[in-house]
Amino acid sequence: METAVEDLAGRRSEAAALYGKRQLSSDAFVSADREITANLKDIRARLRYAERMANFSLGEAEDLVRWWNTALPASKRAIARLLLEDVEVFLTSACGVRTVEPGRVVLHWRKLPGLSDGRWGRRLV
Predict the structure, then answer these.
(1) How far apart are CA 96 and CA 80, in angstroms?
(2) Distances from the Cα of 83 to the Cαs of 54, 58, 76, in angstroms?
(3) Contact by Cβ (8 Å): 100, 120
(4) What is the pTM of this model?
(5) pLDDT at 114
């Protein structure tokens, strides 16, 4: 991904050089610059996300809580989608209730093949 960033930066400088030599129109330069900027923004965001995930280690529960409290919403969403199959949220007892009452939210955990059917436990015995 870092090479893609360098490539886009090179393309931007080439477009600027062509514009400076009047071989590229103003509209074409602005259009190319917008496209390169959008691509750079997307690649840099993916690179930051990849670096965060590379530095992520599943240690103790406290480490996971610390990571969760500082993680981006997209990262939290990805972990939740990985672990949960479905989330059911039922109506509140009264309008305007913002707290999660017991039994109001039901989490349906994903079942891992080999672990949830009891085969994994038999291998240990």
Answers:
(1) 26
(2) 19, 14, 11
(3) no
(4) 0.47
(5) 65
